[in-house]
Amino acid sequence: MSFSRRDFIKASAAGIVVGVFPGCATSGGEIVKKTGQRVVIVGGGFGGATAAKYIRKWSDNKIEVVLIERNPLFISCPMSNTVLGGSRTIEDLTLSYDVLKKKYGINLIKGEVTAIDPEKQTVMLADGHLSYDRLIVAPGVDFMFDKIEGLDAKVADASIPHAWKAGAQTVMLRKQLVAMPDGGVFALSIPKGPYRCPPGPYERACQVAHYLKNNKPKSKVLILDANPDITSKKGLFMAAWNELYPGMIEYRPNSMVTAVNADTRTAKTEFEDVKADVLNVIPPMRSGVVADMAGLATVDARWCGVDFLTYESKARRNIHVIGDAVSAALPKSGHMATSQAKVAAAAIIEMLQGERPDQNPTIANTCYSVVSDKEAMHVANVYRYNAEKQVMVSAEGGGVSAKRSELEGAFAGYWLKNILNDVLL
Amino acid sequence: MIPYRKLFIVIAGFLLFTSAQAAEVSKHARGLAASCSACHGTDGKSEGGMPELAGLDRMLFITSMKEFKSGARPATVMHQHAKGYTDEEFALLADFFAAQKRH
């Protein structure tokens, strides 16, 4: 049973439970009538939405899909750093789920899951439950605020944004940047890996510097990195910092932020207190906490172990996990989430039809980093299944751009257009 | 007597085997092609900017991929993707994309 004892007591005390074991269907009953084989998907980000679309597409609409998402709109995290630089607005990155509903016949439920019952194969929401043959949990990441004294979800929303999920905090961080005095300090703290989007923080430093260079040239970007070194595209980022923004970006490795003071906008590391005009603290991450409702976070109680042929959880039968929440030597990126989603979608269809999934899944990832209003660079890899070790391994020949370029700046934009189309339209 | 029944079973079995194998192969092809769509569009139908792969001539496709792989054709990113696949997979991908309608 997924409900903990404490939840049970809380629920009983609140008078919700009347004589039945919680976690079983409550008040509302089956939210959407189940007529055939059904896959329920929790989370409509890059991974979840792709899985929803491709299960319908590849099963010739034979398998029912219910997608549960708490946000009314899809906002792309990839490219959201360009909102800080000023070359995009958050509206440019915002899409509706309507086409998934209308064109692909996906049942979209706006809401939050309150419990998962792996034995009864049901997912609970506030107003009823949904039964499934297979469940996909695509919860993305959640932040471990408790690792940073003085920081919590409220403080992040109010004054020290992470802006590591695109949306209101992205807009707030842009506003703080615009309101910053010339000569001010924008401090950006990066957590220890693994975290969502490895090159993202270094790209963000570029976008912030791009804005400052044109608007507040006496200002500084200070990077406090908990990691011992730049974790992605190091040579390319150092070149971009030195050549495009000379003297503007200061990089401090091994600088883990352990506490913040929201009133004074100060961040504390092992070595120093850093006072900033804008404080952008990206906290350590873990799999979205929904994973805990079915005990899926098997690795360090943080990430979810899966079988890479099907993305079925190592802990629970008939429950699959995709995207950033997965424990793997794979980058936590939007493209990667869609690649995993397609392997899972194909495998689920095949298993529901009594067939054997592809034994040699091969997937790709590319992350473009946009370093100004024009130039970008990438890292690209193909990953193949290694049957002996039962993991995905990077194929020979992957790598990064020879140099940043305007051509790749254009390709990054085309990538965004095509991937959003592939996920949602 | 010639064991027609036996012969039939053998032939039917063979046909079944090869069609099952073909299905397996095309599933692998569909999966391979699916990771190109982030850039080239769903089923290779590009929504702009990136080259369209849907309906691309087989020979042209395979030649391009081999040239990306060897480095003969300069590229920003395709050399790195092409190196991740075998020549047999290029052929599978070529069949897959050649069968898609351009849009």
Task: Provide key terms for this protein.
heterodimer; A: 425 residues; alpha/beta; 5-stranded parallel sheet; 25 strands; globular; disordered N terminus; B: 103 residues; mainly alpha; 5 helices
Largest sheet of chain A: 5 strands, parallel
The count of strands of chain B amounts to: 0
Q: What class, by secondary structure content of chain A?
A: alpha/beta
**Unreliable stretches of chain A, pLDDT < 50, 5 or more residues?**
1-26
The radius of gyration of chain B is: 18 Å
- Please state the CA-atom Rg of chain A, rounded to the nearest Å: 22 Å
β-strand percent of chain A reads 15-25%
Write down the secondary-structure element order of chain B: HHHHH
Distance between the termini of chain A: 37 Å
What this model shows, in words?
The complex is a heterodimer of chains A (425) and B (103). Chain A has 425 residues and is an alpha/beta fold. In chain A, 28% of the residues lie in helices and 24% in strands. Chain A has helices at residues 5-13, 46-58, 81-85, 98-104, 153-158, 168-179, 200-215, 234-244, 334-352, 406-424, and strands spanning 38-42, 64-69, 74-75, 94-95, 107-110, 113-117, 122-125, 128-131, 134-137, 141-143, 185-190, 220-225, 249-252, 259-261, 266-268, 273-275, 278-281, 285-287, 306-307, 312-313, 319-321, 362-370, 376-386, 391-394, 399-400. The radius of gyration of chain A is 22 Å and the shape is globular. With 103 residues, chain B is an all-alpha fold. Mean pLDDT of chain B is 84; it is low at 7-20. Chain A binds chain B through residues 54, 58, 335, 338-339, 342-343, 346, 350, 356, 358, 360-364, 366, 378, 380-384, 395-399, 401, 405, 407-408, 410-411, 413-415, 417-419, 421-422, and chain B through 24, 27-28, 30-32, 34-42, 46-50, 69, 76-77, 79-85, 89.
